[in-house]
Amino acid sequence: MADEAKAKGNAAFSAGRFEEAIQHFSDAISLAPTNHVLYSNRSAAYASLHRYSEALTDAQKTVELKPDWAKGYSRLGAAHVGLGNVEAAVSAYEKGLEYDPANEGLKSGLSDAKAAAARAKPSGASPFGQIFSGPDVWSKLAADPTTRGYLQQPDFMKMMREVQKNPNMINMYLQDQRMMNVLGVLLNVKMRAGGDDMEREMGAPEAEAESTKRSAEPEKKAPEPEPEPEPMEVTDEEKSAKEKKAEAQKEKEKGNAAYKKKDFETAIAHYTKAMELDDEDISYITNRAAVYLEMGKYDECIKDCDKAVERGRELRSDFKMIARALTRKGTALVKLAKTSKDFDIAIETFQKALTEHRNPDTLKKLNDAERAKKELEQQEYFDPKIADEEREKGNEFFKQMKYPEAIKHYTEALKRNPKDPKVYSNRAACYTKLGALPEGLKDAEKCIELDPTFTKGYTRKGAVQFFMKEYEKALQTYQEGLKHDPNNQELQDGVRRCVEQINKASRGDLTPEELQERQAKAMQDPEIQGILTDPIMRQVLVDFQENPSAAQKHLKNPQVMHKIQKLVNAGIVQMK
């Protein structure tokens, strides 16, 4: 019975009926509560509905039930990305790759998460973070009649504590009108609600003086000198061993000097001599391996690295030294690689090195090796003729409205020929039909990247953005496409639809539900956040309410006018 419910859930998911899929998966879980696959599938359905908190809970349960199953970490990473926790997402994807290093989904997810982390601010914090951490947050909320009653509501207090702990979580609660009201109070902004005549009230930010006092630390008395220890007696054997170690170090220094001069044979002779004098320091072996690597004697390099690792484990050497030997071995293996399969052992070696010590250089070498393997695989797999055949199969399934099957063939076509923009356009259409809008947007953007003159790419991208209710972005996309084909009817219709939606906000024609949804979405836009937290723009908005003559001057500034129009389109303010 659980399998039957699971099958129904999979069918509903493939058809884009995610709510129905969740219900079927939940039924299956009630029958088989220890089946990790069911939690994984339900997590994917929650994520498709942007219910990332529930998706995270199910992903965590998946990993708990099956810690060595790579897909569980893929679900975990996707949920963290949806919640804006990109660092946690990176950790999840990396953990999954430890179990399945060749998993393309995990690699792609890791790449996207790292890119998101790189785009974030250095602090990684939401622009609204400071207003929730201020000393007068609670007093402001208690003083305002709109928010005073919230302080008696346990769920509201829990929500506030979570946002204070992690400001990035604010995006989860923007659909809650209470959070919108809190933002209004803390920003001195009165958010416009459906039917209100007063759209915005801005108060000049209060100046807060901060002063810090440092008390002088009492001077510490200098410690009294300790008596020197009595010299230890050294046996002749210990004295000899010490002398050999010192001599080995001198040989190493001579080897280093020869290596810098690119006198490789001399360097090898000195490192070998050092190894004979002292077999308890594996740096002599790894240094000789480096010389062999520089000389192109990769097999000898690999032998020395294996010897260094084996001896290092016997001696319990510093894990950084063992990691260095493994990294050097991986580099030699990459040099020897002729086919994509040859990269497997090199990638595995780099991964082992990272388990010993997470070194940025090793991580870069691992990423380079994985990239080289993928490129070589594509070259080995490249076949435009088969790609065209797969694309035609995908087209047939698309006509039959069998979108998951169509995606399968389009994906195979891209593996055979990754430079065909038409296939990306077709697959974007499939993703859009299934409600997988982020995937559809990604394919549409890739289509435009490959051929900026291919107008179908712009219609695909604009349609996805329109369904995501990002009307301004969709309008820009359609207009960009019209530059290449001014008479394209599909693009012109797209422009008309976007303008209609944008004008609804300007005229105040939105229903209260539409207004709240648009405001919540807008508050997740970094540009909107920047405008509302900009002291200059806050003063501009105050002038619009209290000083009409100054407001007229502001309207002459095109940058200010653009920002005001952005707020109007987002439903935050209304011009009258």
Please tell me about this protein's structure:
The chain is mainly α. It contains 31 helices and no strands. The protein has helices at residues 2-14, 18-31, 36-48, 52-65, 70-82, 86-99, 104-119, 129-133, 137-143, 145-148, 154-165, 177-186, 236-260, 264-277, 283-295, 298-315, 319-336, 343-356, 360-381, 384-399, 403-416, 421-433, 437-450, 455-467, 471-484, 489-507, 512-522, 526-532, 535-546, 548-555, 558-569. The longest helix has 25 residues, at 236-260. The chain is globular and about 95 Å long. The chain starts with a helix and ends in a 7-residue tail after the last helix.
Helices, strands, pairings?
Elements (H helix, E strand, L loop, with lengths): L1 H13 L3 H14 L4 H13 L3 H14 L4 H13 L3 H14 L4 H16 L9 H5 L3 H7 L1 H4 L5 H12 L11 H10 L49 H25 L3 H14 L5 H13 L2 H18 L3 H18 L6 H14 L3 H22 L2 H16 L3 H14 L4 H13 L3 H14 L4 H13 L3 H14 L4 H19 L4 H11 L3 H7 L2 H12 L1 H8 L2 H12 L7
Q: What keywords describe this structure?
A:
single chain, 576 residues, mainly alpha, 31 helices, TPR-like_helical_dom_sf, cytoplasm, phosphoprotein, TPR_rpt
Question: What value does the average pLDDT take?
Answer: 83
Shape: globular
Low-confidence stretches: 194-234
**Protein structure class:** mainly alpha
Figure out the total of helices. Answer: 31
How many individual β-strands? 0
Oligomer: single chain
Helical content band: over 70%
> How much strand content do the residues show?
under 5%
Q: Give a short account of the largest sheet.
A: none
Distance between the termini: 61 Å
- Compute the gyration radius: what is it? 31 Å
